[in-house]
Amino acid sequence: MQLTPRLAIFTIAASLAYLWLAILGEGGFSAFFSRPALSVTAAALIVMAGAALFTGANLSSGEREDRGNRWIIPTVGLIGLLQAYLPAYSDRIGFWTFGGDALRWAGVVLFIAGGALRLGPVFILGRRFSGLVAIQPGHELVTDGIYGVIRHPSYLGLLVNSLGWSLVFRSGLGVLLTLLMIPPLLARMRAEEALLHSQFGAAYEAYRSRTSRLIPGIY
Q1: What's the distance, CA 5 to chain centroid?
Q2: Distance (Å, rounded) from C-alpha 207 to C-alpha 204?
Q3: Which one is the CATH code of 5-209: 1.10.230.10, 3.40.50.150, 3.30.750.24, 1.20.120.1630?
Q4: DSSP of 70-95
Q5: Whole-structure pTM value
C-alpha cells in the first residue's frame, strides 16, 4: 500500500526542505557533511522518507472526524520547522550547545530508533492511520504487538526522533523545542482516545485500562 501521489509528493518535499534547513543552519553542504554523524542522520532521514511512501497513511476525514483539534497540525508543523533549522544554527554558532561527538552519535541512535518507532505503527495501521483524528471505513481496534503495551507508539517515536535530532547538533534549544511538542501531542492523544472510546465503547475502555498512554509502566 502506498501514499496517494499528492501526499507522496508532500512527504518527499517536506523531508528535503527539512534537510535543506538543517544544512543551511549548519553553514552549507561542506560544513554539514564534514561531520560523519550529521551525514548518517541525513541518510537516515532520506531512508525514512522513502519508507513512509509505502505506509498507506492518509489525510482522510473518514466516516467521522473530530475537527476541533486541527490546530495541532500547524502547531506541530511550526515547531518542526524551527527544529529543522535552529539546532543546526545553534551548533554552528556555539549557542547553548553541550557534549561532543559521543553525544552526536547517541543522537543518531535515538533519531533512527525514534523514526522506526514512528513509522512502524503507521505500517501496522495502514489506511487507518490518518493525519486527522478520524474513524476510517472498516476501522478496527488494534490491541496487540506494540499496541498491547502503549496506546500511542507513533507519538513516542516522534518525540524520541526529535530528541535524537537535537542531540545530533548538541543543541539545548533543540531539546527545548522537543519539550514544546509535548502539550499539543497530549491534546491530540486525548482527542484520539475520546473518539475511539465513542466508537468502540467498553472494548476501548478495557484496552485503555491495561495499557500505558505513552511510556510503558509510567504514563
Answers
A1: 21
A2: 5
A3: 1.20.120.1630
A4: TTHHHHHHHHHHHHHHHHHHHHHHTS
A5: 0.94
> In this predicted structure, what is the pLDDT of residue 62?
84
Sign of dihedral through CA atoms 98, 214, 77, 31?
positive
Q: What is the pLDDT of residue 76?
A: 95
Counting as low any pLDDT under 70, the low residues of the chain are 1-2
CB 101 within 8 A of CB 172: no
Burial of 162 (0-12, 13-18, 19+ CB in 10 A): buried
Set of cell numbers at residue 73: 497540525
The SS3 of residue 112 is helix
pLDDT value of position 5:
75
Q: Are 157 and 117 in contact (CB under 8 A)?
A: yes
CB under 8 Å to 21, separation ≥6 — which residues?
81, 84, 85, 88
Report the distance separating Cα 199 and Cα 65, nearest Å.
Answer: 11
Cα angle, residue 72 at apex, residues 206 and 15 outer, rounded to 5°: 105
Confidence at residue 1, expressed as pLDDT on a 0 to 100 scale = 64
| pLDDT score recorded for residue 140 | 87
DSSP secondary structure letter of residue 152: -
155: three-class secondary structure by DSSP: helix
Q: Where do the structural domains in the chain lie, given as residue ranges? A: 5-209
Give me the residue label for grid cell 500500500: 1
Contact 148, 206 (CB under 8 A): no
